[in-house]
Design goal:
- The protein has 193 residues and is mainly α.
- It is built from eight helices and two strands.
- The protein has a two-stranded antiparallel ribbon with strand order 1-2.
- Strand 1 and strand 2 form a beta hairpin.
- Helix 1 runs antiparallel to helix 2, helix 2 crosses helix 3 and helix 6 packs across helix 8.
- The longest helix has 27 residues.
């Protein structure tokens, strides 16, 4: 991957930096976005809760971005980034060593190696099946099933717009999730046969 490059222009005998971009920034964004779900799930298997995952992912993504030039091949991104997440998870636990409910480094290493042994293609197949099933939903149903992930207060606003209660929307979301679960199961059964 490339080194730091800046677009430069001379005006009035002075050097002006127009923009500063590393060629690898675009590669990093694309690779991180492609593998973000796998990385978050990897972090969640190592960490006690989603808040910890968010914290470690934030720190890890900065480390990855800074070190992306050390990566030789794009195909090595996922294992390379999982190592960074494992190290940052170690730091997370070290910084919170006073909490007796958190794992020590040895247990974290065992968990990490166990997770690595799991089949990554299974996760890719599940994601592909979910994408296909989401696409099969009507736009209204798709909006509703994704609404709980749109931020605080979105379900309340949506309920007001639709003229119903939040509770009734959540019941609809529950039914749609069950429908998606069944659809994903059928898709996976079809691809495995």
């Amino acid at each position: 991957m490339g080194r730091y490059q800046a677009n430069q222009e001379y005006h009035d005998g002075r050097l002006h930096i127009l923009s500063a971009q590393t060629p690898s920034e675009k590669d990093f964004d694309r690779l991180f976005e492609t593998h973000e779900l796998s990385l978050r799930l990897h972090a969640r298997a190592l960490l006690p809760n989603w808040d910890a995952v968010d914290e470690v992912m934030q720190i890890s993504s900065v480390v990855m971005w800074k070190k992306i030039s050390q990566l030789d091949e794009e195909t090595a991104f996922l294992p390379w980034s999982k190592v960074i997440i494992r190290f940052e998870s170690h730091k997370y636990f070290r910084n919170r060593h006073r909490d007796p409910l958190l794992f020590d480094a040895d247990v974290l290493d065992i968990l990490s190696s166990t997770i690595e042994e799991q089949n990554e293609p299974d996760l890719d197949a599940e994601q592909a099946a979910l994408d296909q099933c989401l696409t099969a939903l009507s736009p209204t149903d798709r909006e509703l099933v994704l609404a709980p992930y749109c931020g605080h207060g979105y379900m309340t606003k949506l309920a007001e717009i639709k003229g119903c209660t939040r509770n009734s929307l959540y019941k609809q979301v529950r039914r749609l999730r069950k429908k998606l679960e069944n659809c994903v199961s059928r898709q996976l059964d079809t691809t495995q046969s």
